[in-house]
Design goal:
heterodimer, A: 275 residues, Pyruvate Kinase, Chain: A, domain 1, 2 domains, 6 helices, B: 102 residues, mainly beta, ATP Synthase, domain 1, five-stranded mixed β-sheet
């Protein structure tokens, strides 16, 4: 009986060790991806800064839905395509659901195959984008903005994974439109614009919305990668603990089996002596 | 004059530019040092930057040019690269970048 138990524990130790190898490998993959993506974060931030700088010089006087806010309301959920990142994806879904309950949006746009199942049966979902990108692309964000504009969306809120630090990534809400102009710089009026006419401002506001979405998606991606790295590290550490505990159990059972065998031998020898 | 080409993927900087030539949606124009402030919508075009020691050419895809009147020119664009790196078929059509529905 103890032999069966020993084999069972040994099998569990083996399984846990192979699981540990997988989680360790996934942690290393996440670390490599973070290094690659983090290098680009500075560029993305600089791009957004320059875009905001351009927009801040322009007095927006157009009848664009993103400026006036006249049209449908929409919620964009920037989720994840892959799981194994702890509660990151589900936290984003929960935050989005609670925001929708509160504000009752007209349409919902979901990015991410992992986040999609939560919203698949929701009637308000206008479009689900699954495996749209590995690392966010500007082109995809243009597609998203075009989709929203073709559906008469004017007021947009975004739920994304805010990157607080390497250990904390929290779902956050960003109000994308209607666009609120910040205080004008004094020299803003000195500018000349080309082309003259509303087309320039339309293109600019759409470019701005795309840039902001791109930067939010990028931040969400980094948060996802850090969340995955942390959860894989935790899983590896937990596997270590499980292996340690199982090894103790294994040794205990082995010792009990040896003791049992010794008792049987001694008892047998004593019985022979008595004859 | 300092010229920066800023895209979502990379940034190119030139601190010793003398003259920048590009094409807006209304036509070609050039910017010299301390030009009056302007923000213009760019077409898909080659940006030629004349430097102290030669000339650099980059192809940019849409975007805006921002000249602040203080010797700084920023070209904001979706994509940039050497002209020979571009696939012309991607941008054929109405002069706008191809969008793929995903």
């Amino acid at each position: 009986m103890s032999r069966g138990r020993l084999l069972q524990i040994k099998r569990r130790i083996g399984a846990t060790q192979s699981l540990k190898k997988i989680t360790k490998a996934m942690e290393m993959v996440s670390t490599a991806q973070i290094k690659k993506v983090e290098k680009r974060l500075e560029v993305v931030r600089e791009f957004l800064k320059e875009t905001k700088n351009v927009v801040s010089q322009v007095h927006l006087e157009i009848e664009h839905p993103f400026v006036t806010g006249n049209g449908k309301s929409a919620l964009i959920i920037i989720g994840t395509d892959m799981g194994l990142c702890g509660s990151f994806s589900s936290e984003i879904s929960k935050r989005a659901l609670s925001l929708d309950r509160k504000e009752n949006f007209d349409q919902i746009y979901v990015i991410g195959a992992r986040t999609a199942p939560t919203f698949r049966k929701n009637e308000k979902v206008a479009r689900i984008y699954e495996h749209a990108y590995d690392v966010p692309t500007f082109e995809f964000m243009q597609t998203l903005v075009t989709d929203m504009l073709s559906n008469d969306v004017a007021r947009v809120k975004v739920v994304y994974g805010k990157f607080k630090n390497k250990l904390a990534q929290l779902p956050d809400i960003f109000v994308l439109t209607p666009f609120v102009e910040e205080d004008k710089k004094e020299h803003g009026d000195m500018y000349e614009f080309e082309p003259v006419g509303p087309d320039f401002q339309v293109k600019l506001i759409e470019f701005y919305a795309t840039s902001v979405l791109f930067s939010l998606a990028f931040e969400s991606k980094i948060s996802e990668l850090y969340a995955r790295q942390n959860s894989m590290r935790n899983a590896t550490e937990n596997a270590d603990d499980v292996v340690r505990q199982l090894t103790i159990d294994y040794n205990k059972v082995r010792q009990a089996s040896i003791t049992q065998e010794l008792i049987e031998i001694v008892t047998g020898a004593d019985a022979l002596k008595e004859r | 004059m300092k010229v920066r080409i800023v895209t979502p993927y990379r940034i190119a900087e030139f601190s010793n530019a003398q003259f920048v030539v590009f094409r807006t949606v209304e036509g070609e124009m050039g910017v010299l040092d301390r030009r009056a402030p302007i923000i213009a919508k760019l077409a898909i075009c080659d940006v030629r930057i004349k430097l102290d020691n030669g000339e650099e050419v980059y192809r940019v895809v849409d975007g805006f040019i921002h000249c602040d009147g203080k010797s700084n020119v920023v070209i904001l664009t979706e994509e940039m690269g050497r002209p020979e790196e571009f696939d012309p078929h991607k941008y054929l059509g109405n002069g706008v970048s191809g969008k793929t529905a995903k």
